[in-house]
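Quick start: what a row looks like.
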Amino acid sequence: MAIFDLFKKKPAQEEALSRKEKQTVLRVIRRQESIVRRDIIDWRTARLEATLADEPKQHRLQVLYNEVMLDAKMTSQINLRIGKSQSADWSLKKGDKNDEETMNLLKDNGLFDKLVKFIVESQFYNQSLVQFTFDKVGDPDLELVPRTNVSPATGRFYPDVYGGESEQYRDRPDFGKWVLEFCPDRSDLGILNKAVPYVLMKKFALSCWSELCEIYGIPPRVLKTNTQDTDMLNRAEAMMREIGAAAYFIIDTEEEFEFAQASNTNGDVYKNFIATCDEQISLLNLGAVLGQDTEHGNRSKEEASTDLMEIVVEADKRKIAYYINKTAIPAMESLGIIPAGLRFEFAKATDTEKLWDMVYQASAYYEFDVEWLKQTFGMEITGPRMNPNGPDDGNGALKAGNFNFFA
């Protein structure tokens, strides 16, 4: 019995358990990762390890990518691209008809949203190795194999990133059925590889700016006393601890201490540097600097940037449709999640405002389908508007030629 049929008939617990026993998964040995400060040297070392000629590994590089994804702008813009594709209208067609039941199935169990997420992320990480699993009640799910354990250049999977054992996941009999791979270019390292230096330098600038705020916001205090006298020294320390929370230090009356004044600044140098890094990150993620320069921004600039972003999103949709039709649908058909013979399509993007202007101008010469107007513009049309000054047919309805829908 196909899993698609079992969804409709609510399979018994025994059938669900037997189906779960048949699934094969790539099992990972989890290791504790240390949290340390990353810099450009770590990035160079990770790139060298990922581009080795004999056995390239991406463990260090993917750990660095996870650190990069802690940046708020990087995360928000990638989620923006994912969300734009997830919210787009799509359909599963069998011939000329939509399979609404299968579409609702993929929406309800979250498979479509996960497929979109992993496919879009594959452009940034340059890989997304996923596998189907089934829970105790037989519902399908899609899990991501940790990218630190995968080397797409050689097609090897490492159960333990610190061990030497590995296997060719592309040679597995369940590859393309239980295990799916989304990898745009095996020789590339992804978009995040280009964003790493900007994120690391941005974090460094934020750290320096934070220290500057601490120095200028709460300047340290200085107290001179006789440090040779223990009573006077203890009294001075107690006094400095009780007065405020700013940093303090105590020097002897015979000593001198001065702050070095390299240049007077209010942090503009850090602010400009961070803004430059943010601009480069935006160009990598969205193809434009969108909604960032609020001081010198204007409506025309934002509209032009939005148009550029829409081009990037349309390219994402083409990649999503390609991977779903080529990889995901054949796998789900073989597992019985969906029926055979379906094709995935995104709805064609239309400029509703421009289309309405065209309809309005053509309404003086042509008639339009009411159902199409409802579906396209969301208009609840109940019937034609009566013309109190015009003749009717005796039953309250307008005669031909006396009805102007857009009057």
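That is the whole record. The chain has three domains: 3-193+311-346, 194-295, 355-407. The radius of gyration is 31 Å.
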